[in-house]
């Protein structure tokens, strides 16, 4: 016997070794005179049972017994043979029997360390003792622990055959990765086929070392490893007031291929003694192609008798529920997102549509339940390579679940040519002239819109209508109404040409930019108006054809920037304050379109009207022009002539302060914004017949301590009002009590965001004022500071709060006339949301609000999550409102055991 640790200190000597074993690292050096391999040994197979090289090493020593053909490796030993790798405290290699045995090594305290870890290909085993035959590839493992997919297998004794199948005695199957798991499925016999399945005999569930009666005669657990696998989805049992007893979300998951997965589930409801409860189906298709796209398509259908909605008593008491209930509902969701690629087209989709009643009858999701409108779009866009042209094809839909209005735009085509310099476009040489900056751009938009809503036709004069609906009418989307829905289409083709005349500098500081644009819309319909004297009403007819509407406008803008700075000195905390003032003046001109009979029509004049024909206000009707394209999609004709000068004034205030946190001197100062923006704008139309001065719009944007965002805006009017609140063409400074302007509308939005996560240098705890009197240590008067670390009050939490208010001038005082005044503050509401991390394993999130006008708490939702290592508890509570209730679920975290859970809930469906 030879100690390798000692042999390394003297010259190497030839050592006998077992047949087939590779030469140890201390073998003699090869003959350098031989330059090639011996051709006689090429293709010769190794003799004996060992097929490849056995590599071994140990931290302490390796002892050989030549007579018995045995090697013992001590301390951090490892043996590698092909795909097999074994590490342990002590490993014995018996070449006579082709047997490897491994076990741990006890330290001076008696604790076993370096327990065997055995790897065979992709499989890994941890054990108390291992015996493995590297010829037959069979093994016996005591106290084995191995991972199969998401699960872990513990067994007293494990046998492994040449097919890599595992047979376990007194096995435990769990998804907990601890040596002593929190829960497991206990079975006397177990068979494991790696990366396929685990099959057991009779088993029962053990939680916290407490056996439970939950079990079955056999167990089957798929272990697909990293690859996906098809399988059954176990349904959930429950009871609901509007469905009776039910089995829901049971079905099958199909792995179509490596890119597509399909989940099909169904639900069935018992109903009551009078009628069948109904059924539902849900299909969820997910697909993904790496570096190309990924998406998800989901379709749900629900069918229930009308007599089961929330019980017959609720139906009789709530007519709104009875009217809105629909026995057959569906919902479709589709999202498709491509991977951006240069030069390629981009196809994307975001679809959320279906029956307006679906989310109110079949979901408890707060966002879907409260969302009044859903928008859907499918689009394809592309930028042509080496050309300044891009185009897009789009289909959009708007669904309002309250009014049940559906607007579908199909198709929506856009073709745009980016701004092009005229000289460069024509290939003409430039000479530095001002007109060489002229550039043009073009955009074409074609839309066809279908809607199930026919808007009410109203006339400014107040005359009654003949033909057409006088009130808004919604056409139900049914197959029988296909004709009226198609006749309600609106098509428009729009062309817009823009001409930029360059940007010039005047008087060194003024920027001057003239421009002009022309747009033309083509319609396939228009309205014709005709006054009927016998009926004393206006008749409206729809004419079909191709009709052109042109709009021209031109203008110029003059702007500059002014700066003012106040310096306080570099030694001060506040070193300087800078004010940026950006005034601008623009002029806009467009011709008069009211006098064009192709755009507007005047069906009568004052002489044709009878003298006693008066409107609801008691005033005589006057001649008026009516638009031939009222309510049509696209851009209709302009109004009266415009020759308007607009004014705008932008303000920004910044402060330069000393940076006390800078210790390197690289950034001694920093900028702090005091006012992000204070903007004013108005205008004056010189050729308008009345109300030439436009209202004054003002807005203020700022942030306080980088936490509180403030946005305030308002609209001021310069004209007087009569006793009924109608504007009259007289300025406010012309009245007996003159003033410049009146606040008509105002809005304020305040939002606050706070994150209490500790910053570098912040203490981990705060001292409390007084110590508990019943604590013998912390209450010691001789140690007044001993309670500093008793409690940690620096619990991370986030808070998002917003306050919104809307003000509207109520108008003249009408209290004595019996007319109710308008509300000055129609909207004042506050919303809060955030999260509290109570511990490292538990967090609480919340959403709530308060409406100060109605004096009611808005929708409140409290959600919590508790991590229990291999288990988790999730819950939500909605204390008030129509969907109040709670939902608590405790279950295994692993997707493999997703049906191992306990759920308790009370919602509006079963409360």
UniProtKB/TrEMBL annotation:
Residue ranges of domain LPS-assembly protein LptD central in the record: 198-719
Gene Ontology CC: cell outer membrane; transporter complex
Entries under InterPro entries matching the protein: LptD, LptD_2
Coiled-coil regions, chain positions: none
Region Disordered: start-end pairs: 1-43, 754-781
Pfam families in the cross-refs: LptD_2
Compositional bias per record (Low complexity), positions renumbered to this chain: 1-30, 759-769
PANTHER family registered for this protein in UniProt: LPS-ASSEMBLY PROTEIN, LPS-ASSEMBLY PROTEIN LPTD
Protein name, UniProt field: LPS-assembly protein LptD central domain-containing protein
């Amino acid at each position: 016997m030879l100690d390798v640790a000692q042999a390394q200190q003297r010259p190497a000597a030839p050592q006998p070794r077992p047949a087939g074993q590779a030469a140890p690292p201390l073998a003699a050096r090869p003959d350098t005179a031989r330059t090639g391999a011996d051709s006689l040994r090429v293709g010769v197979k190794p003799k004996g049972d060992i097929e490849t090289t056995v590599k071994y090493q140990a931290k302490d020593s390796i002892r050989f017994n030549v007579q018995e053909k045995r090697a013992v490796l001590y301390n951090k030993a490892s043996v590698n043979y092909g795909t097999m790798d074994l590490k342990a405290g002590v490993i014995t290699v018996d070449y006579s029997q082709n047997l490897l045995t491994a076990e741990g090594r006890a330290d001076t305290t008696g604790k076993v360390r370096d327990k065997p870890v055995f790897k065979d290909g992709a499989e890994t085993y941890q054990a108390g003792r291992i015996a493995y035959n590297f010829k037959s590839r069979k093994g016996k493992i005591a106290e084995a622990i191995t991972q199969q997919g998401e699960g872990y297998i513990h067994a007293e004794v494990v046998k492994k055959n040449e097919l890599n199948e595992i047979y376990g005695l007194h096995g435990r199957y769990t998804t907990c990765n601890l040596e002593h798991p929190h829960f497991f499925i206990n079975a006397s016999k177990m068979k494991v086929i790696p990366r396929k399945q685990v099959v057991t005999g009779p088993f029962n569930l053990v939680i916290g070392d407490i056996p439970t009666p939950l079990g079955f005669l056999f167990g089957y657990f798929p272990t697909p490893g990293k690859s996906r696998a098809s399988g059954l989805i176990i349904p959930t049992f429950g009871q609901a007031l509007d469905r009776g007893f039910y089995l829901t979300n049971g079905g099958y998951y199909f792995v179509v291929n490596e890119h597509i997965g399909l989940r099909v589930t169904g639900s069935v409801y018992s109903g009551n003694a009078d009628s069948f409860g109904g059924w539902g189906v849900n299909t969820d298709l997910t697909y993904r192609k790496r570096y190309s796209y990924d998406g998800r398509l989901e379709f749900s259908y629900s069918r229930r008798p009308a007599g089961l909605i929330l019980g017959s008593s609720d139906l009789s008491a709530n007519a709104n529920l009875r009217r809105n209930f629909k026995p057959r509902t569906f919902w479709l969701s589709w999202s498709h997102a491509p991977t951006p690629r240069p030069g390629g087209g981009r196809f994307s989709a975001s679809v959320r549509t279906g029956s307006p009643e679906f989310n109110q009858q079949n979901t408890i999701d707060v966002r879907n339940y409260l969302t009044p409108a859903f928008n859907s779009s499918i689009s394809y866009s592309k930028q042509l390579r080496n050309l300044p042209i891009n185009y897009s094809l789009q289909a959009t839909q708007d669904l309002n679940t309250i009014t049940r209005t559906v607007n579908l735009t199909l198709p929506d085509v856009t073709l745009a040519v980016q701004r092009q310099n005229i000289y460069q476009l024509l290939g003409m040489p430039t000479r530095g002239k001002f007109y060489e900056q002229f550039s043009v751009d073009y955009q074409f938009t074609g839309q066809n819109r279908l809607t199930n809503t026919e808007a009410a036709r109203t006339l400014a004069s107040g005359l009654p209508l003949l033909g057409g609906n006088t009130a808004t009418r919604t056409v139900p989307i049914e197959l029988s109404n296909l004709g009226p829905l198609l006749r309600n289409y609106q098509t428009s083709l729009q062309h817009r040409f823009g001409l930029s005349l360059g940007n010039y500098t005047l008087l060194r500081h003024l920027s001057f930019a003239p421009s002009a644009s022309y747009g033309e819309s083509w319609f396939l319909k228009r309205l014709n108006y005709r006054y009927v004297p016998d009926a004393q009403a206006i008749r409206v007819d729809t004419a079909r054809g191709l009709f052109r509407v042109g709009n021209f406008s031109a203008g110029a803008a003059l702007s500059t920037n002014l700066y003012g700075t106040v310096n306080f000195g570099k030694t001060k905390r506040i070193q300087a304050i800078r004010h940026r003032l950006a005034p601008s003046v623009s002029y806009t001109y467009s011709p008069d379109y009211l006098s064009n009979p192709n755009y507007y029509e005047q069906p009568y004049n004052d002489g044709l009207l009878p003298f006693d024909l008066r409107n609801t206000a008691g005033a005589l009707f006057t001649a008026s022009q009516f638009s031939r394209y009222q309510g049509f999609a696209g851009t209709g004709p302009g109004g009266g002539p415009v020759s308007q000068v607009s004014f705008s004034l932008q303000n920004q205030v910044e402060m330069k302060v000393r940076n006390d946190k800078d210790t390197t001197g690289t950034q001694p100062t920093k900028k702090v914004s005091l006012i992000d923006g204070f903007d004013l704008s108005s205008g004056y139309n010189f050729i308008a017949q009345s109300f030439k001065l436009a209202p004054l719009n003002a807005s203020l944007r700022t942030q306080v301590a980088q936490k509180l965002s403030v946005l305030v805006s308002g609209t001021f009017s310069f004209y007087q009002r009569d006793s009924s609140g109608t504007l009259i063409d007289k300025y406010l400074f012309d009245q007996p009590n003159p003033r410049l302007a009146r606040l008509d509308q105002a809005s304020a939005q305040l939002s606050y965001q706070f994150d209490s996560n500790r910053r570098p240098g912040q203490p981990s705890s705060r001292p409390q004022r007084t110590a508990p009197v019943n604590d013998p240590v912390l209450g010691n008067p001789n140690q007044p500071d001993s309670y500093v670390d008793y409690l940690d009050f620096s619990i991370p939490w986030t808070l998002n709060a917003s306050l919104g208010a809307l003000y509207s001038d109520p108008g003249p005082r009408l209290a004595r006339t019996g007319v109710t005044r308008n509300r000055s503050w129609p909207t004042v509401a506050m919303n809060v949301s955030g999260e509290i991390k109570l511990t490292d394993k538990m967090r609480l999130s919340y959403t709530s609000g308060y409406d100060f006008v109605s004096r009611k708490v808005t929708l409140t939702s409290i959600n919590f999550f508790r991590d229990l290592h291999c288990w988790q508890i999730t819950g939500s509570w909605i204390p008030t409102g129509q969907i109040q209730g709670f939902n608590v679920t405790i279950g295994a975290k692993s997707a493999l055991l997703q049906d191992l859970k306990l759920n308790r809930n009370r919602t509006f469906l079963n409360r």
